[in-house]
Every structure is written in structure tokens, then in C-alpha cells.
Amino acid sequence: MSSETGSATHGQMPLKKPGSAIAHRLVLTIGPILIALILGGLILLALGVDPIKYYGYVIQRGLLSPTGIQQTLTRMAPLLFLAAGLIVAFRAGVWNLGADGQFLLAAVIAAASAPYLADFMPSWLAVIIAFVLSTAVAVIWSLVPALLRAYQGVNEIITTLMMTFLGVSLANVLVKLVFLDPSTTVPQTRTLPVADRLPRLFDTTISSGLIFGLIAIVAVHLMMTRTAFGLKLRIVGANTRAAIHSGLSVPHLTVAVFALSAGLCGMAGAIDILGVQGNVRADWNPAYGLTVIPMVFLARFNGFASIAFVLLLSVLSIGGESAARRLGVPTVFTLLLVAIVLIVLAIAEYIDHRHNQAAKA
Amino acid sequence: MVPPSASNQAEQPAIISLEGVTKRFPGVIANDSVNLEIRPGEVHVLLGENGAGKSTLIGMLSGLQQPDAGRILIDGKPTPILSPRHALSLGIGTVFQHAMLVPGLTVAENLLLGEPWWRLPKKEALREKVTALADSLGVRIDLDAVASQLSLGEQQFVEILRALLRDSRVLILDESTSMLTPSGVEELGALMRRLVERGLAIVFITHKLREAAAFGDRISVLKLGRKVSEISPERFRSVGEDELIGEIVEAMFGKQHDDPDAANRSPNIFPVETPAILSVDNLTLAPSATTPGLAGISFELRPGELLGIAGIDGNGQKQLAEVLSGQEKASGGRILLENRPIERLSVGERRDLGLRYLTDDRLGEGTVGTFAVSVNFLLKQIDHPPFWKKGIEQSGLIERHAVQLMSEYDVRAPGSQTPVGRLSGGNIQKVLLARELAGGAKVVIFNKPTYGLDLANTLAIRQRILDIAAEGKGVLLISTDLEELLGICDRIAVMDAGKLTGIVDNSPTARTDVGRLMIGLAA
Amino acid sequence: MSDLFSDVFLGALFFGAVTAAIPLLLAGLGEQMSEKAGVLNIGIEGMMIAGAYAGFLGAYYSESLWLGFATGAFGGIVVASIMVLLCVRFGLNQIVIGIGLTLGFEGLTALLHHFQFSRTYPRLPAADVTVVPYLSDIPILGPALFKHHLVVYLAVLLVFVLAFVYRRMQLGLNLQAAGDKPAALDVAGVDVVRTRAFAVFTTGALAGLGGAYLANIGAGIFVPFITNGAGFLGIVLAMLARGRPFWVLCGALLFGVCLSLTTALQVAGINIPTDVIQMIPFLAVMAMLIMFGRKSSLPAALGIPYERGAR
Fold this sequence. Notes:
The structure holds three protein chains of three kinds.
Chain A: H1 18-46, H2 51-64, H3 66-91, H4 99-118, H5 123-152, H6 156-178, H7 209-226, H8 228-238, H9 240-245, H10 250-277, H11 288-298, H12 303-327, H13 332-360
Helix pairs in contact in A: 1-13, 2-3, 2-12, 3-7, 3-10, 3-11, 3-12, 4-5, 4-6, 4-10, 5-6, 5-10, 7-8, 7-12, 11-12, 11-13, 12-13
Chain B: E1 16-25, E2 28-38, E3 43-47, H1 54-61, E4 69-74, E5 77-78, H2 84-89, E6 92-95, H3 107-112, H4 123-137, H5 152-165, E7 170-174, H6 182-197, E8 201-206, H7 209-215, E9 218-223, E10 226-231, H8 233-238, H9 241-253, E11 278-285, E12 294-301, E13 306-310, H10 317-325, E14 332-337, E15 340-341, H11 347-353, E16 355-358, H12 362-366, H13 373-377, E17 388-389, E18 392-393, H14 395-408, H15 425-437, E19 443-447, H16 455-470, E20 474-478, H17 482-488, E21 491-496, E22 499-505, H18 510-518
Parallel strand pairs in B: 3-8, 3-9, 6-7, 7-8, 13-20, 13-21, 16-19, 19-20
Antiparallel strand pairs in B: 1-2, 1-4, 4-5, 9-10, 11-12, 11-14, 14-15, 17-18, 21-22
Chain C: H1 7-36, H2 44-62, H3 65-89, H4 94-117, E1 130-131, H5 141-146, E2 147-148, H6 150-168, H7 170-180, H8 182-187, H9 192-219, H10 230-241, H11 245-267, H12 274-292
Helix pairs in contact in C: 1-6, 1-9, 1-10, 1-11, 2-3, 2-4, 2-9, 2-10, 3-4, 3-9, 6-7, 6-11, 7-9, 10-11, 11-12
């Protein structure tokens, strides 16, 4: 199944003057978000919660309060890496639905290796080696679906889904049986001391992982849009037969896409552990991957736009977590909101597409 | 062939009448106030080039599309045809150009499609009916064969059978002969005659003049969405075939225009001692489930020579082109380009040495439809300097390259950034042409280069091919259009089931020689 | 260790395997029908969770398990109707909408549950079982396989029904044509959109039923995210079974045994993390794919919306 790239539902955007095209995109992007916020508000209203108060609180705690914004920016780091990994895959027509497995395995490897390495080498070196190691594990983890897709034509949706289930279980097994910290009663890995983690930015609590995440997603965006390699990947994604006709080695490129995508998802796990969490507890699975997918679609696989949507997701998550404690609206409301945005966006693009066709006829 | 005279008696009232039917698509009027009458006992030929609006007309008659203006009358009553199901219930059966059988189902199951969903398929009743019907038409069909394993001619017959099983009064055949062997065409023609004798009305769509003259009772000529001429059965009977064709040509192409397929180049004979620019020796490829493979293909191509490859579609022509271009790995044999073995080289390396391949599948594999024209010009040169430096794209250079090629090859598009999929077929073909001919082409393989193009573009592309040969390049022209090959080639090879069954000089006897080779007789 | 293969252990193992397999079976059969008709239904997880919640509510308030199954199936159909409208009718991207529906209904059910029950998790009374006479007297296997709620037998019966539909009914032909070559079905006079809509609605009903079984009989309670990927497992089963209902049954039982093994081992006093055993079926499937992974023969038009007259 090759996918259309560039837009969530219909491949072609109307040709217009650049200015009005950007305005058009903005309306098509912000419109669905507003509609989703209103729909979410109606749900809150039905449940007896004042939506204005809820949204106000979320913005206050996720964006405006000093601790909130710092948490929000810190949360962005792994999400940006995940978005970068998904952009590479989706643009190349590979439906990598295994991001969560890749994320979690890398996280466990990072949590297992960093404290151990830090025992006999400088902590900065330990962090770097742990980062590389966990990325490598995520890449290797993706090899099975990659090779199956590239050389046997086995659909990657099914294999990456299975590898996610497998990865989540394996991560738990590793935490409970192999990398268990003997000094605590809760099943978890050893903890990387705060001092050894990634440095914080200036005088804030923001992890420097944010910077790496931003670099990663911008680099991925530039690679996909400005380089020969990125163009090759996009050709494979848009028209596999044209890629074969043009002499591109589709199997090699497919494996490369999986490796890059999984590697970036793995980095997300590593950066979360090395920067924020410090360890992995048994049964910990934030399942960021599934919530980042809608953001990447909203951004139409554009790296810069993804930054904005990841920020939005972070604000909603951090603010939502505070609101859960204060207003009694559980954090799953954020999940619901993200889903509504995604569906409304798809409908909006459909209406827009139909409108354009009607205008042309 | 003398047109038979099924309609000697007084004209029967029309089953279907079209009155001022108009259909618009974005940017084009596909049908412009078309009036048409379809009568029982008559083969009504709709003749026109690609883009003349034949397919749209069929779409409306079969319920796939609705007219924007005008009306359709069935038995004299205005009746909008709302859906394919509705068309069937009105007695209109359609055999589409591209087979409409479900590949994984058997013939019987395909014929049973459309029964109410809660039923258990009545295979035995079907078997009886089909046997009776097939016997009366003098044809055999295996009901238990899986559809994907039938030849195109057999698939077409299954579809005709389906229409007849549903008691169709009108049978529409959309370009049904384009995929058939010459003998298959004859058989279909005979079958059509038998069917109209039973009182059926047949609408036969084609762009081949000879078939129209041979099988029709009445001919309507479509041009750019308008009906420009109608030749009645009376007229049909009163003039000879050649005169008729002259008349049709005039209707199709305006004033006294020559038959566009008529020879316009005198073939060259190349002495055997001229060194070959491309020589192919015993090239083989294992057959796959859907393709015939290649069996010991050998030929030589000399500089400036135009070698045609004739044959029914799907006899290994595409595989030959793909093996030569490197897209497919040969299982054996040698390919020498200017005496240098290239069979182990990649697509890109062969291209760099001057071997170019212009695919017949322009949007499917030739281009990436959603990408800009400028990028599509360079699809086969990604990461080549000067357009990419150290892997980084040089957009200014790419843009300039595109603008230059667009003017050189007369590519008409809003701009170089327009997605190539938005261009017309002719303009996409020019993009491919520009890409393949740029920078040091030595041997060019054309696969059905004029398929689906309008006359102006067809002639332009043929001229381009002639120019390339005149420059001393070797040209391999794969085409299923025999007239095209007879018109411009020096020699013509015939492919059948993955073999080259013979190569003949394009002499005055070439038409019969090639025809004999195509049906498996020695030239 | 000696009682590892005791009658009690094996009985509990197989009984649990059937209980765990039924939701997967229903999801897999449902997904299979969608895929046959050309719709890749990633939203099935959302249909299941909606079915689980609606089914639980129905059973909780009516105190009737059967009404619970009815509301569960209805819950699945509600989610399916969104998919039908957006993906089948309007032709939107099936993966995008599928993910959206899954996330949305996981969120919505958790949210509603929170506001309805706060932190309490009311438990349903144990289900009545239908004892199959004679067969249930077989040692070990008898009580394990033939003392279940009636719906279990119906689900297994459904495998035969669907196999019959696919191989022997016009409906089966229609579904296959809708997935392999929708245009051919259309010109044969059958509405492709309706055929696909039927398939997706059926998927919704089956997935909803599976979810309701999971909550009402499997667990006896509803907790947020209770389906925990069962719908995705259904997708895996459907893709591996390639159109054959019996293979879905076999796959569901294999997964069921593995899921049940964890609990059974713990009962037997052997403490292996559940995760180890949960990995087994996936490892088996991946190993199978690696060894025999030929090109999976999915319907040609899977995931592609049908638009009449488009070329």
C-alpha cells in the first residue's frame, strides 16, 4: 500500500498565489483545531465541567505559568524526535506503527546502560554512549519488519504493530528480570542521578533534550525537502514503480527508511530517560507514538509545522495533567481532543477538496 | 469485406436516443450536444480519436456518469440512467475497454455477480444457460476457469456473455478490439454480426477506420466531443470500403487529409557490415505468473535505424524493454551497447552510457504525478552534478534546466512547479521525451509512445522519433499499432509469447508478412 | 512442580484460553470481513472499547448479560457508522480515521467512565454458563470447553456461518469483488458503497460484541483501556488468516492459550512475568512470517476508496 504524501487525505493542494495559499492552509489547519476545541468543550459541558474554566486552566498551567511552560518544553523533546521519525516514514510511504515499541526498548536500554556506564566513566560520556546504544537497539529492532517489507513484501502495518506488542512486553521483561535495581522494592531499573542527566537549559528546569529534538526535526525536514536522499525517499513513497523505473534500489531505501525512523523513535526514548525520567519503572508506557501521529498529519508531514503542533500537544498534556488534579477531568480528555482534531481535519480537507473540484468544473 | 445487410427492412424505432447530451469535466467539454440513435439489428460504430468523447458517452449510457444537459430517451420515453444497475435493468449491457472481471473469481462466479446478496449462487442453472448460449454462438467457455487466467479475448467474451445472460437489448463494446489479435478481431466481428441478426443493438466503439468500415452498419464520427458526421446504412451499402474510409477520414480530420497512418517515410536498408550500436544475443527472462518472460531474443540495431517491435500487447514487449533498460534482471544472454557488455550494469549506468527507455506507463511509472515538472525532468539523475552538490539540491539550476527543456520540447504547463500529473497526456509524454533524450542518448527504446495521444501530438511524437533516427541514434519502437510501425520503421520484428518470431524489412509486403507472423505463421 | 500438569491446572488453562480467545476471535472475524471488502479497519480497537463500555453499561443497568451484548454490539456499530460515513461514503484515508477513532473512543470511554463511576469499578455478577450435555463430561477438556456462556458457542458457530457465506453465498462473492475489483462489482449492478458499508457495520457489531464479552464475562468489570490492543490483535489475525475464518479461530485460540497460560502458571505458583508468555504468540507469528513470509495476498483494492467513474 503506497500512501499519498503531503496531506492527510487528498494528495493535491490547490495551486494558488503563495500568499493566499498560506492563508488557505492556515484556515484549514486552525479551523479544525477550533472546531475540535468547541466540540471538546461541549463534551465537558455535558459532563458538568465549565469548558472556559478548563481551557483557561490548561493554558494557564501548560503555557503561562513558569513551571508549566518549563514542563511543556521539556515534554516536547521526545515528542519532537518521534515526530521526526514518523515524518521520515510516512513521507516514504512506510506506515511505521511501531514507534511505541521502538521508543520503549530504547528507553529501557538507556536506563539500563547509563547508570552502569556512569560508574566508571565521566557522566557526559556515559550519556552519549547510552544514547548511541539505545538508538542502535531501536534500529536493530526495526530490521525484522524492514527486511520483511523490503524483500518479501510483507505489509508493515501488521508487522510493526506486532513488534510494538512484542517490544512493550520485552521492555517489561527486561525491567523485571534483567535490569532490575536490587536496591529498591519496586520493579524498576537503576536510576541515573539527576546530576548525571542531560544538562538543563540555563537556570530553568527545561531539559537540553529540547534543543536536540528541535535539531532532529529541522534536520529531518531539510533532509526530506532539500537533499537527493530525501527526494529518493519521497519518490519511493509517492510512486514505488516510478522509483524502480528510475533505477532506485527500493529495498535498500526501504530498509534505510525503517532504520532512520526507528532510530529517531529510539532517540526519543533515550532522550526522555537521559533527560527527564532517569529510570524505567515496570509497566511504564507513555504511548506517545500514537498521539504524535495525529500531530504529524496535522502538520502535513512538514517539520516546522510539526514543532508547533507538538508544542500544542505538550501544552494540552501538561495542562491536562494539572487540570486532572485540580478540576477532576482525567488526562484522557487530551487524547479525546487530539482524536477529534484529527477527524475534523480529515473532514475539512475533504470538504475543501470537493469545493475545489466544484470550482474547477 | 462487404457490409452485411441486416437492416434491409424498414428502420426500426430506436431503443436509445440521445438528445443534445452534454457533459463537462474540469477544463474540458467531453460531450457537446450529442444526438444519437441506437436501433435494434444494427451495429452502430462510434468512431473517434482518443479524447473525442467516446468513453464519456459510454459512461453515460452505462450509468457511470450523468449528463449535465440534454436527455436520454429509452423506447421514446425520457429516462435518466442513474447507475450501472439501472442501465442493466434497462437492457443496456457494456463491455468495457479494461476488463471488468474480478480476477480471483471463476468465470461462473463473475457471471453470477449481481444476483441478490442473500441467494445461494445457482451454478447449475447458469451452466445450462451458458452452454446453450455459447453453443448457439459457436464459442466454448470454461466456467470453472479463474478469470485472471483467461486471455483478454476470452475475458471479453465472458463479458459479452454476461450482457446476453441479462437479456440485454443493447450491447456496448468499448474499444474491444484494441487488445485482440487480427484473428481475434475477425472472430469478434463475426460474433457481432450474429448478434445483430438476433435483433440486438450493438454500439461498437473504435478508433480504427478499417474495423468501422468492416463491421458497422452505421457510423457516427465524434471529434472533440461533438458528433461531426453520421454515415447511414444506406450510404454504407452504396459505396465501397475505400471510398467510405476516405469519407470518414475527412469527417475526422477535416479537409482532404491523408490517412494519418499512411506511410510517410521510405525505409532505409542498412548493410549487414555496418557495426551495430546495440546488439542483443539470446536474451532470456523466466516467465512469471502474469508475464510470458523472454525466450532467446536476438537482434541487432544499427546507428540511424528504426526497428519496430510488433505484436499483441502482453507478449513480452514490456519485459524486453525493461530487461534492456536494466529495470528487470535478465536470466541469461548478452546486451552489447557499442560493443560493450552492459547486461550487468544498473539502470543508471546504462542510462549514462546512452541507453534510454521511454515507458508506456507515463503516470504509473514514468513520472511521479504529485511532484513538480522540474523534478520529474531529473527523476533518473537524482544526486547527479550539477543539480545536486554533495547531495544538496541546487534549486536554481534545477529550475533553469526545467524552463529550458519546457521551451525546447514545447511542454505546455502553467509553470515548472506544476505537478506533472495535472498536465495532459501529450504534455506528460513531452516531459518524458525531454528527459530521455537529454544529454548523450545513443539508443532510445520507445514503448507505445503515441498511445492515447491526440492526432497533433501523435504526429509530433512520430516526427521526433524520425528526427532521432536521422541523427544517427538507434531507435527501438515497440507498438501495438501496426500502421504506426509500417509508417515509419526500417525493419519490423514480431513478438509472440516472449519470442521474436521474425524480423522483416518494411517492404510493400510487410503488412501481410507481419500479419502472418502475428498469428503464428512463418513470413 | 508436580501439579503443573494436574487436571486442575489444565482445566483452568483451557477454560481461560477459550475466555481469552473469544474477543480476539470476534475482532478477527470482524476485521476479516472489512478487509475482504477492501476496507482496512484500524478503528476496530475503538469499536471494541466502545462495545466494552456500552456492553458493560447495558448489563450493569439492566442486570441482563444478553441486553449487555446487544448494547455492546450497538456501541460498536455507532463507531462503525462514523467509519462508514467518512471512509466508505466520503473516501477519506482509512488509516487516519482509524487511528482517530481508536484514540477518540479510548479517550471518550475512559472519560465517561470517570464521570459515571469515579474511581469505583462495580463488578457484574458471574455469568450463567450453558453446560453442553455429555460433552462436558469428558475429563479435563469437557468442563474447560463446554461450560461457557452461550455466546461462546455462538461465536464459534459464527466461524462456520462466515465460512459458508464466503464460499457459498452471493454475499461472499460481492464482498470479495468489493475488495478485489470494486469497479467490476459496480458494473455488475451491485452498489460498492453499500457492500462495503455492510462489511464495516458487521465489523462494528462483532468488535462491539467482542468488547462486551471482554468486559462482562472475561473481566466482569469495565476499566478504561480494557481492550489493551485486542482490536489490533484482531487486525493481525485477519491479515494472517487471509480470508479464511477457520484460521482466525486457530489464531485466536493460540493467542488465548498464551494469555491464559500466564494466569494459570501464577495459580500453579510459578511466577513468570506475564510479559514473557504474552510474547510467545507474537514470536510464533513473526517466526512464521520470517520463514514463510511470501507476499501476503491482501485484496487488491484494500485501503483504496471507491469512486465511480474515476480512472
